[in-house]
Design goal:
The protein is an all-alpha fold and 309 residues long. It is built from 10 helices and no strands.
Length: 309
Amino acid sequence: MLFNDRLKLVAAAPSGAARKKHPAKAVMAGGFAGGLEIMCTFPTEYVKTQLQLDSRAVTPRYAGIGDCIQKTFKSHGFFGFYRGLSSLLYGSIPKASVRFMGYEALRNRMVDKDGKLTQVNTVLCGLGAGVMEAIVIVCPMETVKVKFIHDQNQAVPKYKGFFHGVREIVKQEGIRGTYQGLTATVLKQGSNQAIRFFVFNNLKSHFQGGDNTVEIGMARTFLCGGIAGAASVFGNTPLDVVKTRMQGLDRHLYRNTFHCAQMVLKHDGIKGFYKGTVPRLGRVVFDVAFVFMIYEKTMQVLDYVWKTD
């Protein structure tokens, strides 16, 4: 019997209730998916962050997405789009690990005897997973990433690398310096994962025809993840804009998250909350689709090689 066929049998067994997923497997599958994903999508994240930070400059450097891409390539070459990657890469693996571990741990506690979640519990599991990853990983990781990218726009960059940058931030601002914009980050990640897991699970259930033991395949999993990602972008880009402002080098201009949102509205209007939406949409749709697809497939492999029931 072919290996792939045996994986399908593992995914479909036992009949009846869906199998609970072991949190340790979720850590490994999530970390593997997260690491691969960030290597593919960082350039669009770089462009998005540049445009959001540039909107506050006295004299904006970029006329739009195309101009940002052209100037970055001209100044730094292809690898210029990967400046600041190290800070995000070091965090992406544990971020995805914490997210899926948190989701599966909560899901295992909330499913009914048939292995199903109510709609409310699906949202709560996603929300809980997002809050966990925000506090443990995302806020310090994103703060360092935004400071790195913002620093590259200065006449004389002061950060020489990831560890040097972290040392300088902690030296000058303390541990709190890596937790700037925590409220906005928790709101963003919590709403992100609540939307994504809710949309993904409902679409997956649709393709399964109500039988949650049915394997829907990689293509449909990718499709479900992509739609879930798009929904989350339109749902919380305003929070992403505020979070980025709160974590930049101009963070001192804002008293708190609410004050930052007020300033965005005052200076840029409603459209200011949707800066960087297009590059973010391009990144997130692929990002979420890719991660869900790799995660689901990796979990099948782990179920095959590591029996935990």
